[in-house]
What we know:
The radius of gyration is 25 Å and the shape is elongated. The chain contains 20 helices and five strands. The chain has a five-stranded mixed beta sheet, sandwiched between helices. With 477 residues, it is of the alpha/beta class.
Amino acid sequence: MSDRQDSGIASLLLLLTASAAWLTAHLQEITFGDGILYLQMVRQGDLYAHHHLYLPGMVAFTKGVGLIGIDDRAAGFLFSTFMVLVGNAFLWLTIRDRGGRWPTLFVLLATSSAVVTFFGTTAENHGQHYAWVCLALWSFAVAVGRGGWLAWLAAGLALACVPASHLTGFMLVPAMALAALLRGGLPRTAVYLVPLAVYAVLFHLTTWFRADVLELRPDLIANPIGFEIDSKILTPGLDPRRWPGYLWNAWLVPAFGCWLALAAALPWLWRHARASAVIAVFGMLPYLVLLPMHSYPERGAYFLALVPWAVLATSLASRNAPRGLAWVLAAVIVVQGAWASWSLAGHPTESHTDAKGFAQLWAQDAISVEAKVPPERRLYLCTELWRKTHLEYDHRAGVLRLNPALADVGAAHKAKTLEAFATELPNYIKQGAVFVTEELWQQLPKLWPELRAVLEKAFRVKQIRHGRFVGRRVVER
């Protein structure tokens, strides 16, 4: 092994060790977004969710680390960290292969961003999306450097994994196609896009199979393009006057160091590597133009694919940069990392002033309310799916979910349900506890007046409040 190879391996190991230490120090206890649903599906052995690659990878990882005694809940968080580390390794190799200097510093620039730190330490989908984007970039670098149909075919297969890991990944495809056209010519571009077209067809076929053959619930079935692009991105959900604020919270702040570094590098790229500058900007445009129509900042999750994209483009400008700029880059990493730590320590980049926004904290407060209640059986009556799943998974609580659609249920079926429910309530009260969320209690006169009548007539309903939890407890008279 040459000294250069030995030095490269040492640098990569140093990077992975530093990244692992940074992310492990920020591992979270509370899930975010769809994380609690994914944990529940993993426990049930499910392999399908609207982001196709997430559950298969997470289930395999969970079973693997379970052999050394790590439970499935902790594994859900560690899986995100593991996938970010995998992504960091591929990003480091890509920067090195493309001739960029200081690959370790540039990868730490990506890792120290608040968005990568956050989604690399929680049980959610976006950490693995980061890894697949980095793999696609590396596969493309290999194809450019070595040529050959097989290398370009492998790059195409890697590109197909980008939207398979998160459906917004389709927005990165046009820029990757442009890069393939400029670097490899039209024939290479065609080879590059064939796997993506095949994947799109298979995605629709598997969606049809799951819907019509397996008869899964409609809310589990996602059209590969329509789910994110039609229903979320192209459907204006945010007043245009609020788009600047959205971009500030969802794009700029969660990875400000990466964007500032790219902005500083673009003039040099325009003078000395114009194609790279055009590709870098073109890759970001769909995200910056379309995503402001989406109303959820999600801590920058939907812009996460642009972090390795921007860092790679910035690294290309380092080829002839003076050595002193490495210290500037290190300073940016420190400042950005300090912000990431501060934002995760109780100062989120996305504001949640509404109790509904933090279902996990609501669930924690709800459990603290019942701390002195016998644990055998508990029943929650609530209206929100998120609260249901958090309580159901994290606290093993029984939940009956009611929603406005119940008003359309036939009278006979409703009467039968009410009879069974009224019969079961005393058992829950004797063996555990029954809670009703305040939202549901206020909606019951219109939603299901008979149920409220049963509760008020046969039992005593006490109002309780603890932290974010506001509701009623049903007790014996």
